[in-house]
Amino acid sequence: MNTFEILSPAGDFTRLKAAVDFGADAVYIAGKEYGMRTAVKNFNDEDFKKALEYAHKNNVKIYVTCNTIPHNDEITKLPEYLEKLNDFKVDGIIASDIGTVNLVKKYAPECELHISVQSGITNYESARAYYNMGAKRIVAARELSIEEIAEIRAKTNKDLEIEAFVHGAMCVSFSARCLLSSYMTGRDANRGDCAQPCRWSYALMEEKRPGQYFPVEETKKGTYILNANDLCMAEYIDKLYNAGVNSFKIEGRAKSHYYVAAVTNAYYLAKQSYLNALNKNNQNKKTEWELPSYVKEELLKVSHRGYSTGFYFGTPQNSQSYESAGYVRDYAVAAIVEDYKNGTIIAKMKNKFSIGTVLDCLEPKSLPFTLSVNKMFTENDELIESAIHPEMIVKIPFDKPVKPGSLLRMKA
User: pTM of the full predicted structure?
Assistant: First the structure.
């Protein structure tokens, strides 16, 4: 049966493990250099080995981002780094800079070459050109519609894969290439160090009236005129699949362990639902399918801005939030399940909760369910009313086995 890839982000090994456990087919990560996120831990040599061992044991691929736009002093060190990735046997390297692309083919010939969204591929001629340069995959520019992606698919070699973003934060720049942060703070977004000035509140100031601010909208705080809503295409994975998208990419290497787990799990469930519908209808691409309501609910339980469909259906609608750059955060992780023994959940506490709390349990690759905390004990079997110390081990009696790694959530 034909299928497609769920590609999840990971900023460290904990998040990589969550992505693998909760249903990713592939995970994209970065080393200490050349990746587009400097605000996260990222992976050193030992981390790479550990990540590859865990992922490959679970039949999950690892792609490494080398998608910054390097300067001269950085490009001289790149061949050695690429040789190391080649020796590690990473499954693919994501690049955007032409010089980097050339070096990947020379120094990491055993790794697939993926062309980053940073390259801004918006037409089939560009896609063909990168394929002729040795690319196995292109990441479609965020500005493309579903119809444009379908045309690129129809007019390129069938061996060229297409990856597209389906979920996560959106950037106001063209395919994530932005100079705003560099101009305002000296932090280069094209080298992974964006200060996110697009999320700040702005007002107008007239040249001869310094200190007098004129709001673009009539609010006390000005307006967040550059603040883009988050992308969410879970309802339309059938349309993207039929357009020829091979890999569905979730944004968020700087996101939390919980975010990676929950969003990956949601898209895993959506994928299974759609593939089951296709299978029942003999792979007929005209199969009618609707996203299950529980997937929609899951995507509202993670930290997010308002959702939009980006450019996939033409000019973006409801794509900006002008009143605030804040997130909706309705759920928090109460504890992470470490084991289940003798009718008892053994978990590590993350946020305070008490007897009487109703927890929402998210198991890997499973539908969520609720459980009530009627009794709770310490690691030493002492009865307690509340779990108040971060990282403390708690025991919760429950009549159904719960998988290790499951997340116990509660209303924030």
Answer: 0.88
